[in-house]
Amino acid sequence: MASSPRELTQNPLRKIWMPCKNGLPDRRISQRRVCMTNCPTLIVTVGLPARGKTYISKKLTRYLNWIGVPTKEFNVGQYRRECVKTYKSFEFFRPDNEEGLKIRKQCALAALKDVQQYLRDEGGQVAVFDATNTTRERRGTIMNFAQQNDYKVFFVESVCEDPDVIAENIVQVKLGSPDYIHCDTDKAVEDFMKRIKCYENSYEPLDEVLDGNLSFIKIMDVGRRYLVNRVQDHIQSRIVYYLMNIHITPRSIYLCRHGESELNVKGRIGGDSGLSVRGKEFSDCLGKFIQGQNINELKVWTSQMKRTIQTAEAVGVPYEQWKALNEIDAGVCEEMTYEEIQENYPLEFALRDQDKYRYRYPKGESYEDLVQRLEPVIMELERQENVLVICHQAVMRCLLAYFLDKSAEELPYLKCPLHTVMKLTPVAYGCKIEYISLNVEAVDTHRDRPENVHVRRSKEDALKTVPPHL
Amino acid sequence: MASAEERTGMSLLGTSPRQLTQNPLKKIWMPYKNGHPEQHISQRRVCMTNCPTLIVTVGLPARGKTYISKKLTRYLNWIGVPTKEFNVGQYRRDCVKIYKSFEFFHPDNEEGLKIRKQCASAAMNDVQQYLGEEGGQVAVFDATNTTRERRETIIRFAEHNGYKVFFVESVCEDPDVIAENIVQVKLGSPDYTDCNSEEAIEDFMKRIKCYENSYETLDEVMDRELSFIKIIDVGRRYVVNRVLDHIQSRIVYYLMNIHITPRSIYLCRHGESDLNVKGRIGGDSGLSIRGKEACSFAKFCLWSSFAKCLAKFIQDQNIKDLKVWTSQMKRTIQTAEALGVPYEQWKALNEIDAGVCEEMRYEEIQEHYPLEFALRDQDKYRYRYPKGESYEDLVQRLEPVIMELERQENVLVICHQAVMRCLLAYFLDKSAEELPYLKCPLHTVLKLTPVAYGCRVESIFLKVVAVNTHRGKPENVNIHRSSEDALQTVPPHL
Q1: Closest approach of chain B CAs to the CA of A28, in angstroms?
Q2: Contacts (Cβ under 8 Å, ≥6 apart) of B336
Q3: What is chain A's alpha carbon radius of gyration, rounded to the nearest angstrom?
Q4: Exposed e or buried b for every residue in A361-386, given b needs 16+ CB within 10 A?
Q5: Which of the 8 DSSP states describes residue A84?
Q6: A382 CB-side CA count, 13 A
Q7: What is the Cα–Cα distance from B260 to A138, expressed in whole angstroms?
Q8: C-beta neighbour count of B190 within 10 angstroms
Q9: Measured between alpha carbons, how far is residue A205 from residues A43, A212, A217, B255 in Å?
Q10: Would you say A373 and B393 are in contact if contact means Cβ atoms under 8 Å apart?
């Protein structure tokens, strides 16, 4: 046990108290992160072709990265495409094609090697190994690899026999694949069905008894039923929860900010003001726009701040207020203009420009805090179908970053102008985005990162990118 | 063909938007008409549906059904979903005053079957009243429900009343688990008060046998249209079928995170802080001398520092693999530093944000915000400080902490007064009314050990004097009360 407690110093950027030695912070403090273990996790997909393994891999990777767990997916099919430049036909996948088998095994090993590098040298926490992995033998190879490297393994199997789902899958993501670029639709579908057949005879699904010691989730019929076995730790528990909440029913998510507020007009941040005249006009236009879209069973969510609720009121449908959707808390800088922040807190202002994602306002929040606060919103958005979220600039940036897979560096600078609706529609492995400006003028509230982020910069340098205001 | 209006539910277009007023207690903006708030606003609650949920347990005796029912009920109530459990065995005990033997449960005991069916019906009647008239949102129907026939009866009952049904089945064949279950909760049951242990166990094992032959477990094929979770071997494996909505998804997540491995949870506040001493709330100050350092006249002082006493206490407890959690405020971290073990900082464990009242003394709050001060006394759970939080907000913020506490084993949580009250209320099943007044004094560790269906609490005062920061509810909570009445219960400070 330590003799006298270490002195504490507060990190100026994140406002985290950490012990210091000789005036320097001691590296050893531990801030609660999702992945509290030093042990990396290897997620391994299992399933026949066209069962959504890559869809799940990409989505899960996007989610984990967003909540702050460095994750990367490794698609063995991609390695195969790089190795065998031109795809000829399903024959490549025949179980008796020795050449094909050899190449496919090499690709799997190459991918595993990259997994090792990612988890060991590149700071990765989770790797998603996306391939069919349909035989116990292949899975055994992967588990040996994981054991050697001290990774925890979690299998994600997708089982589906619904021909409609498989057909839709093929249309959405296979027809456009590099493998089938030079084929017409019918030929592509025919070839792909034969490709699936190549795997069927040797497919050994995860079994409750034979694989009773493995950690896995088996997803059946796109989420109708799940079998979950031996969840080992926090991150696996979160992964299971996430996978059990996602669905593939077509729908759209509409994101927008409240109408222009009185504080917006004055160039002041935060606060809880009402809408300006133009903001009210936007709300009316939003109402008309929404009605024009003819959306089936739209849910409308707002924050608990007056300006989003006023906006929703004009839309004229029932809405739910979420405290979690409140704008980022600017702490001591609430209701200030950027000029005032520069005058009163020039150091804070510079630190924010240095690392806008991790910077926490004194007695306030950071974007990083916002993401944690918004995670239940994202989880519920995944569960829901058509939703309109009326929120705020920083909040909208966080939500958008989740859907569009933007990094922590890009996130705080995403453009989310007032009076613009973003319509997000999941398609293939990602999200289609439509920007709809409702043609009501508003101030610009977007402040870019200035060139000079040094703590001793001049006032002019600091305020260079501040948008005009009253 | 439904009109656009009907389909989208938009009927108020064209009328002018309603005016908004801010509810003075919860600081929620709501539309009003003729000066009165409209009931129609919708604050995000866990259960956004008007449709009540009937959770139905399934399983042989001694499979943890009542344990799960009570724990789930406690969790749902804590997160704000009015929930009540209905234990059919309890109804049977009320009906058949004295339990004779397992023979009562014999499948060809017509009298027994009749009584048991009546009890199930009586319980269902009470479920109906709870969900229909008492504002209940979820009812947990706790019985064996081992036959498809019985479950069909329940499903029809639910359909008739417009309830969603979610089955929770517990399947376990591990004899050690079953034996431990019997020891923990059956031997002490009213049924076996007059028996010795061996007789009780023998009778209970025969009781289980009565159910075995007719047990029809939930089946992936035959019951594929039902919504259920099947818990196998105390959480080793789960089958989850047709989760219908948000609340069922939360229930599944919760059930998949709980375990029955013995462990203890230690809750305490940071050591006494500088602001505590001055009678000020909130802030981010460091520890006072009594919180942190030994008195320089150690030989003559009766007290050492709390942080050091805590360190010694923890060491003496000899806890296996203890995790230590703090908030991100200086005073909890300083306290943890004295332990000399690694700790994790959680922002979610930060003290309640008192908004504009941060760092004020109660006297100053009464002087500057007498209305706010009175509203807080009127409904301390729901009251939100201006630009701050309420206890209700705190609970929502702490839910991930509770979820992780359920996953973990031995944990020491060094937190704050309001936060500790919320966590304690979860473990001890305290209502929203009691929660904000739970006593969580400085320099006192609460050791919580799950036992039977609840939690044993040991309170250990670490013998270092500290200010009292507990302000009881004053008699007069009227907004026009005098300053004296308002400040009557303020604890003494510098």
Answers
A1: 8
A2: B324, B326, B343, B414
A3: 25
A4: bebbbbbbbbbbbbbbbbbbbbbbbb
A5: S
A6: 21
A7: 35
A8: 12
A9: 16, 12, 12, 26
A10: no
Asked which of A283-287, B43-47, B239-243 is least confident by mean pLDDT, the reply is B43-47
Catalytic pick from A35, A107, A157, A160?
Answer: A160
Whole-angstrom distance, CA of residue A15 vs CA of residue A8: 12
Q: Do B311 and A234 touch (CB under 8 A)?
A: no
Which pair of tokens denotes residue A288?
């008309």
Let me know: does A12 contact A351? Beta carbons within 8 Å.
yes
Instruction: Report d(CA B326, CA B407) in Å as an integer.
Output: 17
Q: Rounded to an integer, what distance in angstroms lies between the CA atom of residue B32 and that of residue B36?
A: 5
For A399, the enclosing helix (H) or strand (E) is helix A393-404
Q: Give tens-digit pLDDT for B140-181.
A: 999 999 999 999 999 999 999 999 999 999 999 999 999 999
Higher pLDDT, B374 or B298: B374
pLDDT digits (tens, 9 = 90+) for B4-45: 444 444 444 445 667 888 888 888 888 887 767 776 556 666
Owner of token pair 């982020």: A453
The pair of three-digit structure tokens given for residue A354, joined into one six-digit string: 């240095």
pLDDT of residue B297: 44
pLDDT value at B240 more than 60: yes
**Residue whose pair of structure tokens reads 């430049």 in the numeric block:** A85
Total number of residues shown for chain A: 470
**Can you tell me the distance from the alpha carbon of A62 to that of A70, in angstroms, rounded to the nearest whole number?**
10
| 3-state class percentages of chain B: helix first, strand second, coil last, to nearest 5 | 40, 15, 45
Distances (CA, A) of B390 to B83, B204, B331: 22, 48, 21
pTM: 0.94
What Cα–Cα distance (Å) separates residue A234 from each residue in A87, B140, B322, B427? 41, 27, 17, 21
Confidence (pLDDT) at B300: 39
Is B480 noted as a catalytic residue in this protein?
A: no
B398 to chain A nearest CA, in Å?
11
Q: Looking at chain A from residue 358 to 377, which residues have their Cβ under 8 Å from any Cβ of chain B?
A: 363, 369, 372
Residue B11, pLDDT score? 43
| pLDDT band with cut points at 50, 70 and 90 for residue B46 | low
Tokens representing B468 are 């009292």
Q: Considering Cα of B282, then B286, then B288, then B294, what sign does the dihedral take?
A: positive
Where residue A392 falls among pLDDT bands split at 50, 70, 90? Answer: very high
Q: What is the DSSP letter of A413?
A: G
Coil, helix or strand at residue A150: coil
| ipTM for the assembly | 0.94
Q: Find, among A175, A140, A111, the residue nearest to A46 by Cα.
A: A140
Task: Inform me whether the C-beta atom of residue A315 falls under 8 Å from chain B C-beta atoms.
Answer: yes
- Cα B437 to its chain centre, rounded Å, is 16
Active site residue A130: yes
Helix boundaries (H) for A129-276: 136-149, 163-169, 185-200, 234-243, 262-265
Which among A77, A225, A218 is positioned nearest to A154, based on CA atoms? Answer: A218
Contact criterion met (CB < 8 Å) for B12 and A227: no
Mean pLDDT across the stretch B432-457?
A: 96
Integer Cα distance of B246 and B329 in angstroms: 33
Q: Which of A35, A107, A198, A258 is catalytic?
A: A258
Categorize the per-residue pLDDT at A122 as very low, low, confident or very high, splitting at 50, 70 and 90: very high
Whole-angstrom CA distances from A241 to A169, B147, B421 are: 23, 30, 28
Report CA B312 to chain centroid distance, whole Å. 31
How are the residues of chain A apportioned to helix, strand and coil, as percentages rounded to the nearest 5? 40, 20, 40
d(CA B460, CA A240): 39
Cα separation, A131 vs A57, in Å, equals 10
What is the C-alpha to C-alpha distance for residues B274 and B291, in angstroms, rounded to an integer?
Answer: 9
**Bridge partners of residue A43, in order along the sequence:** A128, A154
Name, in order, each residue with C-beta under 8 angstroms of B125's C-beta and a sequence gap of 6 or more.
Answer: none
> What is the identity of the amino acid at B396?
Q
